[in-house]
């Protein structure tokens, strides 16, 4: 199978039972993506697969032949941290760092989902644009556990990143008009 990880193409032979998480960590040496529970319960292994967030421990590598994976490593561009990573730093949104790569990938995915109008379990009006308020953020990030309970700051960081993202997009639209 072949797979692109953080912009680099890899070809590898894997046992059909190998999870994407094990392929990343054991075969490709991408140890930023963490193995917490290996059961789909902690979110530490979250990566972006073809732009959508997935739990890599529950994803079979061979099923994703040809796909594009972005881990927390690959979010930076030209040496600049991703705005979500910046927001986590600015808001002291992590402590141990074990859950952080998954939290950041998940936050990037959650902001994109909201932008595309994907509702969550707490979205009241399914026809309106999604606003990432603290309740929406808590719900959308609920699959990512933090044993240090940095949740308050994580929600603040995602809220700030979502607000900045919306402002950036609207100013880009203004410039294009
Ligand atoms: S390691 Fe995948 S959800 Fe915990
Ligand atoms: S900062 Fe990693 S578990 Fe909380």
UniProtKB/TrEMBL annotation:
Residues 1-75 form the 2Fe-2S ferredoxin-type domain. One of its GO terms (molecular function) is 2 iron, 2 sulfur cluster binding. Pathway: Alkaloid degradation; nicotine degradation. The keyword Ion transport does not apply. PROSITE patterns: 2FE2S_FER_1, 2FE2S_FER_2. Keywords: 2Fe-2S, Iron, Iron-sulfur, Metal-binding, Oxidoreductase. Pfam families: Fer2 (PF00111), Fer2_2 (PF01799). This is Xanthine dehydrogenase YagT iron-sulfur-binding subunit. It comes from Actinomycetospora corticicola.
């Amino acid at each position: 199978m072949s797979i692109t990880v953080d912009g680099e193409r890899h070809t590898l032979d894997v046992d059909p039972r190998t999870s994407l998480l094990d392929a990343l960590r054991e075969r490709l040496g991408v140890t930023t993506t963490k193995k917490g529970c290996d059961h789909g319960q902690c979110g530490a292994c979250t990566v972006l697969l073809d732009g959508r967030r997935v739990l890599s421990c529950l994803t079979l590598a061979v099923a994703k032949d040809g796909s594009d994976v972005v881990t927390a490593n690959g979010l930076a561009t030209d040496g600049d941290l991703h705005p979500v990573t910046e927001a986590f730093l600015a808001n002291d949104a992590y402590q141990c760092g074990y859950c952080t790569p998954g939290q950041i990938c998940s936050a990037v995915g959650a902001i994109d989902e909201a932008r595309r109008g994907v509702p969550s379990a707490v979205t009241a009006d399914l026809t309106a644009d999604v606003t990432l308020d603290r309740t929406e953020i808590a719900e959308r990030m609920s699959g990512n556990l933090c044993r240090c309970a940095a949740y308050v700051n994580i929600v603040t960081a995602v809220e700030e990143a979502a607000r900045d993202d919306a402002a950036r997009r609207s100013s880009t639209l203004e410039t294009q008009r």
